[in-house]
Amino acid sequence: MKGSSSRMTCLALVGALFLVGCSANKTYRTDLVGACSIGDINCDSSLELSGTGIENSSIALSYVEMNDQGLLRERGQLDRVRELILKRGHHGNQAVMVFIHGWHNNARPDNGNVETFRRLLKSYSSLYPDIAVTGVYVGWRGDSWLLPSAVSFWDRKDVSIEIGQGALIDILSTVEKASISTKSRMVSIGHSFGGSALFNATRSMLLNRLDSPPLALAHEKFPMHAAVGDLIVIVNPAFEAMQYWPLHSATLDRISKKDPLLDRGPRMLILQGQKDWATRYAFPAGRSITVPFEAHVDDSDSMDYEKKFPEWRLDLFAVGHFKELNTHELKNSDSNHADFSKCGKNVDPHGFKGGAWTSPNANIRLEPRINFVPGNPFWVVYDTLLSRGHNDLENGRLTCMVADLISTYTKAEPLLFK
Question: What are residue 378's phi and psi, to 5 degrees?
Answer without folding.
Answer: -115, 110
